[in-house]
Design goal:
single chain, 53 residues, mainly alpha, flat
Length: 53
C-alpha cells in the first residue's frame, strides 16, 4: 500500500476514535444508562458480525 494512503488512513482512524471517545464521554455524563445500553448493543452486533463472517 502506498505510504501516503496509509498515512491518510491512519489519520482518519485516529479522528474516528477521538470522535467516538468524545461522544462516549458526553453520553456518559448526560445519560449513562442509555449510553451503556447502546455500547452493549453495539458490542453484540459487532460480535454477531464477526462470528457470521
Amino acid at each position: 500500500m502506498d505510504d501516503a494512503l496509509r498515512t491518510r488512513l491512519d489519520a482518519a482512524l485516529v479522528l474516528l476514535v477521538a470522535n467516538f471517545l468524545l461522544l462516549l464521554g458526553i453520553g456518559l455524563q448526560s445519560t449513562p444508562e442509555t449510553t451503556i445500553g447502546l455500547l452493549a448493543l453495539a458490542a453484540l452486533l459487532g460480535y454477531g458480525l464477526v462470528r457470521s463472517g
